[in-house]
Amino acid sequence: MTALPTRKLEAWRFTDLRQISSTEFGAPPAMAAAPDLPDLPFPRFVFLNGTLNAALSTAFAYAKPFAPVREQGAQPMALINAANAKDGINIEVPDGVDAGEVLLISQASGATPFAFHPRHRVTLGQGAKLTIIEIDKGEGVYWQNALFDIDVAQGATLQHFRLQQESVEAFNITSIRARIAQAAAYEHFTLTLGAKLSRTEIEADLVGETALAHLNAAQLLGGAQHGDFTTIIRHKAPNCPSRQTVKSVLAGKARGVFQGKIEVDQIAQKTDGYQMSQALLLSPDAEMDIKPELQIFADDVKCSHGATIGALDEEQVFYLRSRGIPEADARQILIRAFLEEALEPVTHDASKAIFEDALESWWGKQ
Amino acid sequence: MSSTTDAVIQDLAAQKYKYGFTTEIEMEEFPKGLSPDIVRMISAKKGEPAWLLEWRLKAYEAWLKMEEPTWARIHHAPIAYQDLYYYAAPAKAAPKSLDEVDPELLRTYEKLGIPLNERAALAGVAVDAVFDSVSVATTFRDTLAKAGVIFCPISEAVREHPELVRKYLGSVVPAGDNYFAALNSAVFSDGSFVFIPKGVKCPMELSTYFRINARNTGQFERTLIIAEDGASVSYLEGCTAPMRDENQLHAAVVELVAMDDAKIKYSTVQNWYPGDADGKGGIYNFVTKRGACRGRNSKISWTQVETGSAITWKYPSCILQGEGSVGEFYSVAVTNGHQQADTGTKMIHIGKNTSSTIISKGISAGKSNNTYRGQVKILPGASGARNFTQCDSLLIGDQCGAHTVPYIENRNASAKVEHEATTSKIAEDQLFYCRSRGLSEEDAVGLIVNGFCKDVLKELPMEFAVEAQKLLAVSLEGSVG
After folding, report:
1. Which residue of A has its CA nearest to B404?
2. What local confidence, expressed as pLDDT, does residue B140 receive?
């Protein structure tokens, strides 16, 4: 098996996978029941310990059978996924079809550590539309190493909203590779609440004019959780906008990572790239590491990134307290306001409601 | 881009390096290559004590085990370290006064406009001029000596003030710190030593001009500046180099130490030969510069205007250890032709209430690549630390690259870190506005670029500000659009 990347690799300098390499993972056990499925009127794919469960899933007109793909890339996580992939969704939406919403649900649970490597393929034809709502949950020690290959053809729009609520003993590495054609859009949002260690890595290639990528995320981590959101946006055609807002709230000894690279090829004139990354450290032991990176070879571009890390603004807390709001409430109001902005890019109401509920329950546990 | 602009760019690219001349004076050279014997010869030549030779040999051992770093965004043919000369000095013995200085050498300085004699007095600048490797003339020693300031070649300091050198040499940049620092530690030939005693404000700005002259000679300057409690000093470093076809390696090390309430301001104007229009030749500038704010409320400020060198690999840094200490980094890096610059800073916050400011302006033109690479690290003990970073890039022409690689690591909740970066080209409306007021395209670009760099240029001491603006104009004149 391909070795896991180590911190010696620049792309992994902030995320240490030794916790995964030192754990013995077995094959996923069979799992029958899937508690707590969201009550939403959309077609659904339900994976139990990495295997599609036909009884819990519903029909979706554009689903194709799982077909393993030969891995072309050289990335370690993709190679490991390819070598072990046994199941995954395979969606092909034909030209001009609005396929609505689908739910992609992963539930995991087992007595001893196990691993599964879902390999998902999503292809949208010209002008097609699809919204994927993904929810990852579980109990116990396991490692989900998922990979998405996404192709969005001319004029098509794919929305991909993810709630990562894995067991706090689990590991989740999700790699997403998206190819976005002319006037097409890939809108992504991940809310990371779960897992002991997680990383979402997205490579988005904007290959046609005015192709658009929104790669947004929010992470709320506590305890000894480690959450990593890493993106590479490659502007390979002129006039493409890309937008990113990444917000992290870190309590306990949690560590948050954001690495965001924007590459602009020489041909990609009139690129408009914007990236903002903000982190709130709520405890003295929390840590945030940010590496926003610009690599630009075209001259007529507008690219900017901003990053801030800090505690809650004491002046703002004071302002609220001076209006008679107790300190604890004042802090809560400010943190919620901070997160509210992170959810703004989620324009899909049903998805937004899921994220808001998840935030509410996270808040209740703090 | 308009055709006028294209024409202007062509003109500028064709511009000859204004300071490209060589001085024909006799050089004393050691055999080529690097070995423990060469290290011993350099040390013996300088009459160094045993501890220093041992330190050099240790650095050499460390260097042998290290690998040349590859993480920077620079590309060059492998450097044949065994093909270089590691020591070169003017053949005559070090002069005791200006009268004894080789007239040819003095004429070179004159061409470069260095105020070494009377002009120096008017300018209020003391010059410790380094011609290749040996310091040949030092002025204003008396004035400085009266104030208790030591400003001399480091080889002299080794003889006259061994206890100070031994205490501080390698205390900020250890001998084995990185590949180029280790190389420097093994073979450093000379450089400046500055010691400002307690409570003394250095009566004048100190200045050293470096000049690479001997063919195939690596330059390994070593600078050490110490400011004791309450002391302050402003140090100016400027460089030009004669035209050459072969690449020349320059691996300097600069160490700064600031104790309680001390202030060190270190300013650089770097205009070494960048290579010709095809990217041939030019200086390889691999420099390690680091300052330690050891005392409470100490301050170290780096200001640099980098327009020269084929390759620049340079990250002036601050270790903010003392409570309330301040680090600053102001940088303008201009690349044109085939130049490659990978430069930035590191701010390591260790002490409470430490603060740092980073302002970096990168301008890329021609076929050059310009990278800002920086790190801001807040350690758990740095409560109340504060950082503000702004790095802006300007692209001129569609063959160049501008890159930003900041690392921001915060491990203290009460610290506040802010980072902003933008990349853009000169706005058409700004150009149009200037042109509608009768400015030529080139002047308009010059004006806009000067405005772009203003935050940094205003940090330069008076002596450098004029030179820097001229340099900027010269470097950019040909590249605007």
Report:
1. A294
2. 65
Is B151 within 8 Å of B138 (Cβ atoms)?
yes
ipTM score: 0.82
Give the closest-approach CA distance of A232 to chain B in angstroms: 13
**Structural contact between residues B327 and B359, judged by C-beta atoms closer than 8 angstroms:** no
Closest CA to A99 of A134, A60, A67: A60
CB A244 within 8 A of CB A204: no
A350 within a domain of the structure (yes/no): no
CA distance A153 to chain B (A): 29
Measured torsion, CA atoms of residues B4, B5, B10, B15, in degrees rounded to the nearest 10: 110
Intervals of chain B under pLDDT 50:
1-5, 8-9, 12-14, 91-95, 116-126, 132-137, 210-217, 241-245, 481
Q: Does the residue A341 lie in any domain?
A: no
The boundaries of the domain holding residue B409 are 3-477
Number of domains chain B is built from:
1
Kindly state whether residue A62 falls inside one of the protein's structural domains: yes
B59 Rama sector, left if φ>0, alpha if ψ -120 to 50, beta otherwise: alpha
- Name residues 341-400 of chain B within 8 A of A (Cβ): 378, 380, 393, 395-400
**Reduced to 3 states, what is the DSSP secondary structure of residue B397?**
coil
CB-based contact B283:B338 (threshold 8 Å): no
Number of folded domains that form chain A: 1
In-domain check, residue A93: yes
A31 residue type, one letter = M
User: Residue A131: what pLDDT?
Assistant: 97
Q: How far is CA B5 from its chain centroid?
A: 32
Interface with B, mutate which of A250, A258, A299 (most B CBs under 10 A): A299
Domain that holds residue A250: 10-311
- A52 close to A85: Cβ distance less than 8 angstroms: no
